[in-house]
Every structure is written in C-alpha cells, then in structure tokens.
Amino acid sequence: MEELTEKEQLEALRTWWSENGSYVIGGIIVGVLIIFGWNRWQTGISDTEIAASTLFENVMESSGRGNLDAAAGPAGELFSDYSDSAYAAQARLAMARMYMDSGRDQDAADVLRPLAESSSAGELSLVGRLRLAKILLYQDKAQEVVELVSGNMETAFASRFNEVLGDAYVALGSYVEAEAAYIAALNDNPSIPTVDVALIQLKINDLPVAEEVAAIQLEDSTADEVAADDQVDSAVDDVAPEEQPAEASEDDEPESE
Questions:
Q1: Residue 16 predicted with pLDDT over 50
Q2: Would the pTM count as exceeding 0.85?
Q3: Is 189 exposed, middle or buried (0-12, 13-18, 19+ CB in 10 A)?
Q4: Per the domain annotation, does 28 fall within a domain?
Q5: Residue 65 sits in which domain range?
C-alpha cells in the first residue's frame, strides 16, 4: 500500500478529530476535574485534621493543669464537629478521667458511653467500654456491667473484660459465674500479661465455697419469707375488724306485764 500523501494524512486527521474530538475534550475535562477534586478533598482532610488536633491539644493542655471547665469547651466542640475522629475518642477518655477525679462519676459515664457504643473507634472503643464498666461497678450497677461487657470476649481486651465481669457477678451474688469469669481472665498470654494474675487469684480465693454459697442462699430465702410474712401481717392489721353486735344487758330486757 502506497504511503498517504501529506494532504491525505491531514484530511484523515481532520476526519478522526471531527468524529472523536468531543470525547477527547470530555476526557481531558473529566481528568482535570478529578485531579482538582482530589486536591480539594486532600486539602479538606488536612484542614479537618488540623482543626481537630488543635482542639485536642487544648483539651490536653487544660487537663494537664487540672482545669476541667477550660477543657469542657474544646471537648464539646470536638464531640459535635469531629465526632468520628480519633481526637474526639481520646478526648472522651481524657474528660472521663477528669470527671472521675472531680467526683462526677455520672458525667464520666455519660461522656464515655458514646465511645463505648461506637462501632468505628476500634480499640479506643474497647478502652472506653472497659472504663465505663468500671464506673458502673463503682455506681453499683453490676447488671449493666454484665450486659455491657459480655460480648467482648474475643478481643485483645478479653482478660480485662473477664475480670470486670467476675467483679460484677460477685456484686450480684452469682459466685459460680464469677469464678468462671476469673478463671477465663487467668487464661491470659503469660508472656504479655494484661491483668494482675496474683490479684485475680486472690479474688478467686475469696469467693465463698459451695457450703457458704448454700448458706447465703438459704439466708436470703429465709429473709424473703420473713419479709413476705411481715407484709401479710401488716395487711391483716390494716383490715378493720368487723363490728360485733353488743350483747343485750339485763337492763335492756323488755319488762314483763
């Protein structure tokens, strides 16, 4: 095939451009928009990270000075504007510690609960759940602790959760379940322990033996029966006795004619 002349090549190029030029231009525009959007997105992420980190630094600075009121402002802004960031999660942990140091255990529980219930905070969520469980134990809310930590036994925090679960069962008087939880906590990696093995063993040793458990249960049952009898007696006492007709006296007998 003979080579095309310069005129024929130019004509072929014009034909191709007329057929495909719009696609080429569209592709270039799309590419430019993608690059522009990516850069804007990266810039937005950078700005968000800077803003969140600045607020977190303010929280930690105030925390270091023990100034709870000064920390509350930037912490609240973190929670509302950057709730999904790691900075917000860490700020919740810091605020909870400050609240507990100030004797405000309910505020500490409230600030930790969103973190404990989060599904996107990873290990920080587990830390929040563990600390919330300890606060609930402090508040004598053992049943809430059982519900909070029971589903976390396949995590790296399993031994710590089992120890807290054992403490909750002790508070509930469920000593068999408490012993099982403590024993599970002892199945920790001995090379990198995450719990105080000696302390947990002491807790197991302090659990009532079977005879003591039976005696405690019998005592509780007897106390319940006594309380029930007292309620019955009280109810009987509250009922007014039926009025009995007065016996007729001799003076009231009709006179005989």
A1: yes
A2: no
A3: exposed
A4: no
A5: 45-139
